[in-house]
Design brief:
Number of strands: 5
Order of helices and strands: EEEEEHH
Strand content: 25-35%
Strand order of the largest sheet: 1-2-3
Number of domains: 2
Structural class: alpha+beta
Oligomer: single chain
Shape: globular
Helix content: 25-40%
Length: 125
């Protein structure tokens, strides 16, 4: 990284209120761009790549109050966003489209999307 560039530091934090069994009851997050305002969340999926270890650290949190329907919607949106991010980062449009196909399959199976007829009973095209 060039030493001539001015670097700006941003901060992101999550506060997790847990019950006696360490199950999240409440999630609140804020960022340095949010001007100190905390936002509530029902779930968080955080993935950090460690290049030295060649592995991903994952932190998956969801509150007891989060419904399966909400989880399905979150997973659908996450799959579709991952496909977009992957395509933007790699220009691998074929693989990104395969991820989107799975996202659509997931969306139909969880009834987030209406049945399109693209997938038969076992998920094949």
């Amino acid at each position: 990284m060039s030493q001539n560039k001015s670097l700006k530091k941003e901060k992101f934090s999550i506060d997790v209120l847990m019950d006696e069994n360490l199950i999240p009851e409440d999630l609140q997050w804020n960022s340095s761009q949010g001007k100190g305002q905390s936002e509530k969340a029902s779930a968080a999926l955080i993935y950090l790549w460690n290049a030295q270890k060649n592995e991903t650290f994952s932190l998956d949190l969801w509150t007891k109050k989060m419904s399966i329907e909400e989880m399905n919607k979150m997973m659908f949106q996450t799959i579709m966003t991952l496909a977009n991010s992957y395509e933007k980062a790699t220009s691998e449009d074929q693989l990104a489209n395969a991820m989107r196909d799975f996202g659509e399959f997931f969306g139909e199976k969880t009834e987030i999307l209406p049945k399109s007829g693209k997938f038969d009973g076992n998920g094949e095209r």
